[in-house]
Amino acid sequence: MGLKYNGFEIATKVTGVTVLRAGGVMEKAMRSVVHPAHYGKILIVGDPTTHEPRLHYANLPPAISEHQVLLMDSTIVSGANAMMAIRICLDHGVSEHNIVFVSLLATPQGTRAIQAAFPNVKIVVSILDPHIGKDDLLIQSGYGLFGDRYFGTEC
């Protein structure tokens, strides 16, 4: 049609950061479509009493500050774990503009919390579900703890 289109340029430096365990389900798909890419891992565990996130492990590539970063976790409930993962990337020199948080299922309140704290981080989610359990703080659509379901370790 002769119209000019100013699109997006494909990033040449990409790092996928898996938030363990459940974020690992997306890593295989990323490895099959993004070549070459670097990978990192972050393990954040919620305190069983306070539900506050605690960092247990982080291993990120040395040059991550120069890369587009895809942070991968299967769910966003309160947004606390996601915000800690984002903060870890920022502490390693990654620009907010270069972070995309990818999740399968999220709550609207979790995504709003992330957007309020980090307005330049992009969030990509397949489904928003507002139903959270009052006691266990899990999404109540039968989804449960995705890592347990995926890896066959649910009780």
Structural class: alpha/beta
Strand content: 25-35%
SSE succession: EHEEEEHEHEH
Number of domains as seen in the coordinates: 1
Q: What's the end-to-end separation, in Å?
A: 58 Å
Determine Rg (CA atoms, Å). Answer: 16 Å
- Which fold name is given in CATH as the topology? Rossmann fold
Overall shape? globular
Biggest sheet character: 7 strands, mixed
CATH architecture label name: 3-Layer(aba) Sandwich
Global mean pLDDT: 81
Q: Helical amount among residues, as a percent range? A: 10-25%
Quaternary class: single chain
List low-pLDDT spans: none
CATH class: Alpha Beta
The number of helical elements comes to 4
Question: What is the number of E strands?
Answer: 7
Enzyme class: transferase
GO molecular function, one term: uridine kinase activity
EC number: 2.7.1.48
InterPro entries: PRTase-like, PRTase_dom
Architecture overview:
Residues 5-153 form the Phosphoribosyltransferase domain. Keywords: Kinase, Transferase. InterPro entries: PRTase-like, PRTase_dom. The chain has 155 residues and is α/β, with parallel strands linked by helices. It has a single domain, classed as Rossmann fold (3-Layer(aba) Sandwich), CATH 3.40.50.2020. Helix content is 25%, strand content 29%. It contains four helices and seven strands; from the N terminus they run βαββββαβαβα. The chain has helices spanning 24-33, 80-91, 108-117, 146-151, and strands spanning 14-20, 38-46, 53-59, 68-72, 75-76, 99-106, 122-128. Strands 1, 2, 3, 4, 5, 6 and 7 form a seven-stranded mixed β-sheet that branches. α2 links the parallel β5 (75-76) and β6 (99-106). It is globular.
